[in-house]
Design goal:
412 residues, alpha/beta, Spore Coat Polysaccharide Biosynthesis Protein SpsA, Chain A, three-stranded antiparallel sheet, binds 2-acetamido-2-deoxy-beta-D-glucopyranose, Hexosyltransferase, signal-anchor, transmembrane helix, C1GALT1/C1GALT1_chp1
Length: 412
């Protein structure tokens, strides 16, 4: 039964990839017609691919017959994924400085095609793979970001990693800090975990753009962990899992609770398997939810787990001793920050001096390209030098870590 379940997971994730590839292939020559049909096409193609469901305990625990003992995740257990397009694609090479040995799946838009082709001509970089995904007429470009986690699952394969670090192309992950946290909390990657503590709340359906950054950092909706267990997946009360995202009125917390995607989200492979179990579930939700009124990719990626019954895993108790900042994701990133890059670089240098414990614990940083691109600035000249400086600052306190497998930063 167990090997069967594994095979089914493979078929399902492969099914998802196949149907998206079919969809992409069809976009090349055929007239696109009504964009609404794309969702129907995905659903129809997917429905031929559903295997009988396994018993639910097995689903959540995952098919791995011998689950990895917690507290010993290594770099090889991580994978990274992000979308990119246009001039931002220079971040593919730039981010290799800190992710060189970690499997990475990049979902590239049409305006990155020439760049991706030249990257491929230079020879495959270790563990780096690409999906080319067109713009979908009538849909916001953020659709690409929304589809990215499950495209990565399909491309990488559920057996090849334990934790997926999903962010934007301008998200920097601090890998040693990520591993320290996952191991300190002893989280089981075969269970459905979604991690972020940079949460925003949307209390009003009539104002879907308005948001409030939470002053608490732990999901207030989670049911308590089983007795004797300090950390567990965040199981939501049934009244918090309505298919309608705005139907939170009977939930214990009366707002949509979403992550700030720019500082990234960490998914366990168990969570991704759950989202891919019914291959039409996630793509259908994406095509329904990412629209002109809510043109963001980082909403559906947390609403989908919520509908499946899971919120954000509570992990604050696993913080390193002495850490006293409010959050570990994007500790030094403002929400949609517009400060100049020089100012951000200085902020990190100050942090290294005055709050090294907090800097060492920070998991990620969003170094936004948006403001520069709006000002038609050149990323290679005006952005990358700061990006590299910021990477150095985020990693400086990890460079002499002992007993780990941290390679030196390698800048292009
Ligand atoms: C909340 O519960 C009440 C009473 O059961 C019900 O009438 C109402 O429709 C529910 N609201 C939502 C948004 O689910
Ligand atoms: C955090 O701790 C440091 C001492 O290690 C202290 O100087 C600082 O004021 C504290 N910050 C907060 C926000 O409590
Ligand atoms: C790491 O070790 C080198 C060589 O011993 C030393 O120069 C450097 O200051 C150390 N860095 C940190 C952050 O401790």
């Amino acid at each position: 039964m167990k090997t069967n379940a594994l095979a089914q997971t493979k078929i399902r994730t492969r099914g998802l990839r196949t149907l998206l590839l079919l969809l992409l292939a069809s976009s090349a020559g055929v007239s696109l017609g009504n964009p609404q049909h794309w969702a129907a096409a995905i659903a129809a193609a997917a429905s031929t691919n559903i295997s009988p469901a396994a018993p639910s305990s097995q689903k959540l625990r995952g098919p791995n017959p011998k689950p990895l003992q917690p507290k010993e995740y290594k770099r090889a257990d991580l994978a990274i994924t992000f979308p990119t397009d246009g001039p931002r694609s220079v971040l593919v090479e730039a981010s290799r400085s800190w992710r060189s040995d970690i499997r990475t799946h990049i979902v590239a838009g049409p305006a990155a095609e020439v760049h991706v082709r030249s990257l491929k001509a230079q020879g495959a970089h270790r563990g780096e793979t690409f999906t080319k995904l067109p713009d979908f007429p009538g849909y916001p470009k953020a659709l690409r970001a929304a589809l990215t986690p499950l495209l990565a699952l399909g491309a990488l394969g559920a057996g090849k990693f334990k934790w997926l670090l999903y962010g934007d192309d301008d998200t920097i992950w601090v890998i040693p800090a990520v591993l320290r946290l996952l191991n300190a909390a002893g989280l089981n990657a075969d269970e459905p975990h979604m991690l972020s503590d940079y949460l925003i709340q949307l209390p009003d359906a009539a104002r879907p753009v308005h948001s409030t950054v939470t002053d608490f950092v732990e999901d207030p909706r989670c049911r308590p962990c089983p007795k004797g267990q300090k950390f567990c997946p965040c199981r939501l009360p049934p009244k918090c899992t309505q298919p309608d995202h705005w139907a939170f009125h009977n939930c214990t917390f009366k707002a949509r609770l979403l992550p700030y995607g720019g500082v990234g989200i960490i998914y366990s492979v168990g969570m991704l398997r759950l989202l891919a179990q019914n291959p039409q579930f996630f793509p259908s939700l994406v095509f329904k939810d990412v629209h002109r009124r809510e043109p963001w990719g980082d909403r559906v990626v947390a609403d989908a787990p919520r509908i499946k019954g899971f919120g954000f895993t509570r992990f604050q108790a696993a913080r390193a001793p002495g850490v006293n900042c409010s959050r570990l994701f994007g500790t030094f990133s403002g929400f949609n920050e517009r400060s100049g890059l020089e100012k951000i670089a200085t902020k990190l240098q100050d942090a290294a001096k005055h709050q090294p414990v907090n800097l060492r614990a920070t998991l990620s940083m969003h170094v936004r390209t948006g403001p520069l691109l709006e000002g038609k600035r050149n990323l290679v000249k005006d952005y990358l030098p700061y990006y590299h400086k910021i990477v150095r600052s985020l990693y400086q306190l990890h460079e002499n870590s002992t007993g780990s497998d941290i390679p030196a930063l390698r800048f292009p």
